[in-house]
Amino acid sequence: MTSAFDPVHLAGATLSNRIALAPMTRSRAGEGGVATRLVAEYYTQRASAGLIISEGIQPSAVGQGYPFTPGLHSAEQVASWREVTDSVHAAGGRIFAQLMHAGRIGHPTLLPDGLVPVAPSAVAARGQLFTGDGMKDLVTPRELTGAEVRQTIADYAAAARNAMEAGFDGVELHGANGYLIHQFLAPGSNLRTDEWGGPVENRIRFAVEVVKAVASAIGAGRTALRVSPGNPYNDISEPEPQAAYEALVKEIDGLGLAYLHVLEHGPEAREATLALRKQFSGPLVLNPATEGPTDHRALTLIEDGTADLLAFGALFLANPDLPERLRTEGPYNAPDPATFFGGDARGYTDYPALGAA
Fold this sequence. Notes:
Elements: E1 8-10, E2 13-15, E3 19-21, H1 37-44, E4 51-57, H2 75-90, E5 95-99, E6 118-119, E7 128-131, E8 134-137, E9 142-143, H3 146-165, E10 170-175, H4 180-185, H5 200-203, H6 205-218, E11 223-227, H7 242-252, E12 259-263, H8 270-279, E13 284-287, H9 300-303, E14 309-312, H10 314-318, H11 322-327
Parallel strand pairs: 3-4, 3-14, 4-5, 5-10, 6-9, 10-11, 11-12, 12-13, 13-14
Antiparallel strand pairs: 1-2, 7-8
Helix pairs in contact: 1-2, 3-6, 7-8
């Protein structure tokens, strides 16, 4: 029986275990969207994970959705990430860059040179966003032209090449949680009538083309995709999503991707996960929906073959040595949401005693 502490081969390397650090926004980037010393410290302290998936990194300036988030579209950003990846590798870890274009989830005050958020269609998401000027309503995005859609795909590929230059082991494309790729997939945010919208085969096209472009740029074995079927986060409307995701996986399965990452929304999502698991021939990373905190009790999902790796979020913030704590079934530090974000919120970076509960 496979356990979470068995090695697994992924992206040309053997991972020491099957526990992943889930991608989580940290909002600790410096001026110009560069990764900082604190970013390097945070990831290095969690290098005992079999796989680290970084916070969302914008592939272009207009892709930024939150304050103080990092990019991979300038030479300065690439150089800053090299310090992070070198430190993680020196500690024995492996790290993928998650490329996240926020699409309509953003605000003009976060963007340079008069840019405004862009999306498949000019449909605003309901809700507010934290900015340097306080909470602001999300704005109506500008609809991408056909040429701009193609340029956005090229931006992903360019950022993926930058990720390789920065020393990442691979790239995960964020197609979940209501950001740009998800906005193209969902009929509530994609009202287009051209080749990028309408029927399922058109709505999945952007995701497929981004995956193919990145795979061509850096190799399919270093390319991964994250999805969250039916997740309403960021005002996504996606009724009866299974057909679209099965069509999407059918299109990308033969490429030989590093993995497919599924984020479950609610316990009812397990059936959909198992269907995608059966359909996808490569490794599956699962961020599972669980009753209560996701801890060692979820490791049975590795043992029963539901997933090849499990991604842990908040518990990993509070417990930088989480793989060992999972092995011993605790004790666990309790996550403190007040420490999760911001350049001054050190959170558990300065943990003094890993054995403290």
